[in-house]
Amino acid sequence: MWWTRLKALIVKELLAVMRDPKGRFVLIVPPLMQLLIFSYAATLEVRNVDVMVLNRDSGHWGQELIQRIQGSPTFRRIETADNQTDIREAIDGQAVIAAIEIGPDFSRNIEAGISADLQIILDGRRSNASQIVSGYLTQIGMTLSADTPAGRRAMAKTVATVPRNWFNANLTYQWFMVPNLIASIALLIGLIVTALSIARERELGTFDQLMVSPLRVHEILIGKLIPPMMIGLFHMTLYVLAAIFIFGVPLRGSLFLLYGSSIFYLASVAGLGLFISALSMTQQQAILGAFLFMVPAMLLSGFATPIENMPDWLQPVTLVNPLRYFLIIVKGVFLKDIPAAEVLNQTIPLALIACATLGAAAWLFRRRLE
Questions:
Q1: Angle between the 173-204 and 21-36 helix axes, to the nearest 10 degrees?
Q2: Per-residue pLDDT of the chain (370 residues; tens, 9 = 90+)
Q3: Is 108 exposed, middle or buried (0-12, 13-18, 19+ CB in 10 A)?
Q4: Residues 266 and 351: beta-carbon distance below 8 Å
Q5: 3-state secondary structure of 104
């Protein structure tokens, strides 16, 4: 009998989400927007950069440097400056992000085997992009220096460094972003759908009818818990397929480990959503509460910035964030073939968070019934 009652509640919850225009909007539009925006637009790569060159050198190496900058796929257009005033106006007007000034003795110093300096002027208002562009230009300058006669002689006496990037050899940014989206979209959908469940009952006036039904309190909570987890698994599957077949992200690990750990992750997210829903009286309050948690959770998960870069007093706060642990699992399964022992180490905190959030949601739910 308990399974019949529970199945009826699960079907009812799924139909309530599917038939509600707002519910369908939440299930369709945000996942597509995240997939498009984060996969293509939200990238830390710097491309299609416009720069300006003030070339005071009439020799071969100054022209060689300009040609190498033009041949780089990072730079879109190179404008020529006649004087430093042109550089100032271009930087002030944000027409270019960087300007390179080649001194009059650039080629002469290279031929003489002495230091030849370049001045790079950057737009500090775009600090992150400026640092990356500076690194690109510095790398081009170092490559040019190594190809000069003096550079080839010096290279024979020094140690050559050959960098190799493990797990993402070409540093393809989508290989990093798309696996992260699998975890973030499960957080978004699971949290919002669960947060709306009890608040929707109160707003529609069916909450009292639910309470006088034969369902017990724990059966109501389980019935509210399972549909968001099913929807979250569905969206995760879509994103896994998109990662593999659309974006070409390699799947080096076990899908069994990924989906096994996702059960605990979705349970912890659903527990948070039920807690928010039990606190809320309307669906608007539930949505605001969900976003109030979700934005800090994204920022404190290591999604955009490493946790190690955060202040020491803030890092312990991330220990209660389920997204932190599941991001490690998702990226490990896709890019590293993470072992089962490491997956277990990250799943145990998820299980503890799930127990704590579901327990808190059940306690608050019973308090509201008193």
A1: 170
A2: 667 777 777 787 777 777 777 667 777 777 777 777 777 766 666 778 889 999 988 888 888 888 989 888 888 888 988 888 999 999 998 889 999 998 888 888 887 777 777 889 998 888 778 888 888 888 888 888 777 776 666 655 555 667 777 888 777 778 888 888 889 888 888 888 888 777 777 777 666 666 666 767 677 777 778 888 888 898 899 889 988 998 889 999 899 999 999 999 999 998 888 888 888 878 788 888 888 888 889 888 888 778 888 888 989 999 999 999 999 999 999 988 899 999 999 999 999 999 998 888 888 777 765 5
A3: middle
A4: no
A5: coil
49-55 sheet: strands from edge to edge:
75-80, 49-55, 98-102, 118-122
CB-CB contact of 50 with 100 (8 Å): no
**Contacts for 337 with CB less than 8 Å, ≥ 6 apart:** 252, 253, 254
